[in-house]
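Example for tutorial group B:
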């Protein structure tokens, strides 16, 4: 784990023999830090040989997911972004403690854009009112990702 700027944390986790890598970033829930997540998203997607267009779509999707969550964030809360990389896909979970524990509406233009950019999108809320948006994108040409 490395700390940058006091509260930004990067936690790479490589479970031995699992065929996947997990990277977790935790940073203040403020728009000023979103460039860190956009850069991390692009870097990790490029490791999986995503196309340039898919990498840019993921960068925009992560930015949009964060923007949706930041409006609900508790003051002083941390935004957590978990990237799970497998051989042909990336799963990104973005979460934050919220004031009301309300999931974003799926009937909005923002949700439609998010789904178009990221492939599969879902949301959930835990008992502590932590709202999580999950983005799952498969690399073009993968067995399960050809229909994205």
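The residue assignment follows.
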């Amino acid at each position: 784990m490395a700390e940058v700027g006091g509260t930004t944390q990067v936690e790479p986790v490589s479970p031995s023999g699992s065929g996947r890598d997990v990277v977790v970033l935790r940073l203040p829930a403020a728009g000023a830090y979103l460039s860190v997540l956009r850069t991390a998203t692009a870097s990790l997607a490029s490791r999986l040989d995503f196309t340039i267009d898919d990498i840019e779509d993921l960068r925009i999707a992560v930015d949009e997911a964060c923007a949706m969550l930041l409006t609900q964030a508790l003051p002083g809360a941390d935004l957590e972004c978990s990237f799970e990389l497998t051989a042909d896909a990336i799963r990104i979970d973005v979460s934050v403690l919220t004031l009301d524990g309300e999931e974003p509406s799926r009937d909005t233009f923002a949700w439609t854009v998010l789904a178009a950019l990221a492939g599969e999108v879902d949301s959930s809320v835990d008992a502590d009112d932590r709202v999580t948006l999950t983005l799952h994108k498969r690399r073009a040409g993968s067995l399960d990702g050809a229909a994205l």
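Helices lie at 34-47, 52-70, 109-118. Compare this with the pattern of hydrophobic and polar residues in the output above.
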